């Protein structure tokens, strides 16, 4: 099984992290993952094709924003909040605060949230 490479915190660059956070779908994924729980890729709902969602998740992983783990045929993803807060103090909180205020990425949800009509 191929091991996925994740940059160490000192390898993360502001440019790559900001590039990863420059798309509303990716910001939405970060918002969903900000609860600190690891999520299966199948739990994530976004208004894009599965291949495009995979691309967005890869962009976040390659920048160091998320960590991906494969277990058999399933993939799981989690936000690397601690690493991001250590490397870029306050950045993630600022991005999440602005994203919530402007509803950036609000179209991304968990499958359980998307199925719940009460929102």
Give the mean pLDDT.
92
Q: Which residues form runs of ≥5 with pLDDT under 50?
A: none
Give me the count of strands. Answer: 5
What's the CATH topology name?
Arc Repressor Mutant, subunit A
Protein name: Helix-turn-helix domain-containing protein
Pfam family, one: HTH_20
Keywords: DNA-binding, Transcription, Transcription regulation
Domain HTH arsR-type: 6-99
Please give a structural write-up.
Keywords: DNA-binding, Transcription, Transcription regulation. Pfam families: HTH_20. α1 packs antiparallel against α3 (50-63) and α2 packs across α5 (91-102). This protein starts with 13 loop residues before the first helix and ends in a 5-residue tail after the last helix. The strands form 2 sheets. A 3-stranded antiparallel beta sheet has the order 1-4-3, covered by helices on one side. Helices cover 45% and strands 15% of the residues. It has helices at 14-20, 24-33, 50-63, 81-87, 91-102, 111-114, and strands at 39-40, 44-45, 66-71, 74-79, 109-110. A hairpin with a 2-residue loop joins β3 (66-71) and β4 (74-79). It has one domain: Orthogonal Bundle (Arc Repressor Mutant, subunit A), CATH 1.10.10. The mean pLDDT is 92. With 119 residues, it is α+β, with helices and mostly antiparallel strands. The radius of gyration is 14 Å and the shape is globular.
């Amino acid at each position: 099984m191929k091991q996925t490479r994740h940059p160490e915190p000192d390898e993360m660059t502001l440019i790559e992290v900001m590039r990863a956070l420059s798309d509303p779908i990716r910001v939405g994924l970060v918002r969903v993952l900000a609860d600190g729980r690891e999520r299966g890729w199948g739990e994530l709902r976004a208004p894009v094709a599965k291949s495009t969602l995979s691309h967005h998740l890869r962009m976040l992983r390659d920048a160091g924003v998320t960590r991906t783990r494969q277990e058999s045929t399933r993939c799981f993803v989690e936000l690397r909040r601690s690493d991001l807060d250590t490397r870029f103090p306050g950045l993630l909180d600022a991005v999440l605060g602005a994203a919530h205020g402007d509803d950036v990425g609000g179209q991304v949800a968990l499958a359980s949230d998307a199925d719940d009509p009460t929102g």
